[in-house]
């Protein structure tokens, strides 16, 4: 057996909490590695935090001012000389289908820093990412490592409900982020990728704290239940609306924006049931996409919803934003939607979809009143279209 097969076998057989230690032992044996570290991105996407067997072994590094952060941001391996001249530090992005988890850092003797070894270590980073996703069903080890402070209970409930924060396919790329990451309550995003279509939703439960989180949880699971039954987005909205009304009798509601993309043609069906807004960047032109406003979910009994049809073109970028973004105001009372939103969408046009939400939310944090506590959510969808088709 070769080194790659040995490492794969060892990692797949490792206990869920022991993946890093298993990779470390394997790389020491195969490549004489002098140190091996896994760093995971925190919930706020501001730092990389070392995964260690005990809390005393953990440290945090900036995503903006560290070699590991540069590897994470560029999604390309990065290397630098180590303390002594005969060793080199190599940093490899740990990413699963576009979901940026963190960075694998390996210190090697210079003699081992060859293109073939780099290819092998990039494969190890990819393998480790997939195994972490599976292991998180059975251990809290990696979720604990992503936290630089304690999550509120409402935030814990919301993060457990979310899909990945980014995803890529041949036809599109998605990125999303929520703030405040450690204290969110009502905002949520969801998506489902299938062979011929993509469904994306943004929801915002009314209220604050645990009550808002419980309301959003009911709405998202009702939408998922309908979606997994193969039902169209208008009926998904109607069934979720009924579930919420049956539970709350109109005293609580959820704002929702549902989009369904046909991957072959770029045709998009949209249901606007509340406050989330849809913005489009086409070329260098930013505009809000006007949708037919319909009732939020759960407001009235047996509401009916209608799909509005849109078309996306290769190169289009769509942003779904919650009211915590477009309704934010500066200390002087200027609405962000009037002064800043279109400008930041244009300014971030060269960033990949996974990086756009964080950039928008950082700019928003500098703009809005520091006393503002509302959730803020951004979902970015870059549309590439299917090769050889009109979409």
UniProtKB/TrEMBL annotation:
Give any GO molecular function from the UniProt entry: protein serine/threonine phosphatase activity
Whether Transmembrane counts among this entry's keywords is no
Where composition is biased (Basic and acidic residues), the residues are 76-90
**From what superkingdom does this record's organism come?**
Bacteria
Q: Name one Pfam family in it.
A: SpoIIE
Residues forming coiled coils: none
Q: Give positions of region: Disordered.
A: 54-90
EC number, as in UniProt:
3.1.3.16
Looking at the UniProt entry, the stretches that span the membrane are none
Please list the residue ranges annotated as the PPM-type phosphatase domain. Answer: 169-383
Question: Which key words tag this protein in UniProt?
Answer: Hydrolase
Spell out the protein name for this chain: PP2C family protein-serine/threonine phosphatase
């Amino acid at each position: 057996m070769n080194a790659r097969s040995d490492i794969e076998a060892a990692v797949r057989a490792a206990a869920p909490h022991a993946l890093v230690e298993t990779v470390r032992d394997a790389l020491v044996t195969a490549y004489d590695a002098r140190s091996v570290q896994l760093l995971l991105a925190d919930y706020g996407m501001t730092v990389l935090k070392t995964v260690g067997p005990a809390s005393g072994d953990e440290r945090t590094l900036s995503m903006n001012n560290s070699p590991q952060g540069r590897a994470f941001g560029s999604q390309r391996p990065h290397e630098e000389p180590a303390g002594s001249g005969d060793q080199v530090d190599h940093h490899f992005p740990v990413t699963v289908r576009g979901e940026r988890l963190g960075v694998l850092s390996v210190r090697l003797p210079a003699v081992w820093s060859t293109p073939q070894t780099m290819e092998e270590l990039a494969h190890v980073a990819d393998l480790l990412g997939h195994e972490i996703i599976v292991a998180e069903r059975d251990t809290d080890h990696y979720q604990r490592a992503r936290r630089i402070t304690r999550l509120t209970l409402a935030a814990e409930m919301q993060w457990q409900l979310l899909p990945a924060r980014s995803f890529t396919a041949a036809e599109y790329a998605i990125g999303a982020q929520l703030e405040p990451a450690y204290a969110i309550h009502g905002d949520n995003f969801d998506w489902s990728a299938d062979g011929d279509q993509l469904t994306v939703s943004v929801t915002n439960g009314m209220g604050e704290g645990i009550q808002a989180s419980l309301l959003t949880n009911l709405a998202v699971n009702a939408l998922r239940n309908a979606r997994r039954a193969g039902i169209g987005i208008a009926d998904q909205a109607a069934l979720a609306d009924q579930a919420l009304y049956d539970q709350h009798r109109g005293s609580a509601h959820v704002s929702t924006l549902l989009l369904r993309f046909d991957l072959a043609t770029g045709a998009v069906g949209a249901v606007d049931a509340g406050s989330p807004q849809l913005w489009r960047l086409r070329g260098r032109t930013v505009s809000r996409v006007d949708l037919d406003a319909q009732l939020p979910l759960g407001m009235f009994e047996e509401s009916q919803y209608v799909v509005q049809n849109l078309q996306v073109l290769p190169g289009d970028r769509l942003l779904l934003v919650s009211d915590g973004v477009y309704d934010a105001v500066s200390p002087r009372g200027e609405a962000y939607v009037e002064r800043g939103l279109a400008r930041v969408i244009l300014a971030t046009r060269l960033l990949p979809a996974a990086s756009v939400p964080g950039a928008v939310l950082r700019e928003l944090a500098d703009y809005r009143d520091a006393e503002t506590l509302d959730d803020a959510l951004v979902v970015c969808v870059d549309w590439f279209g299917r090769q050889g088709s009109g979409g």
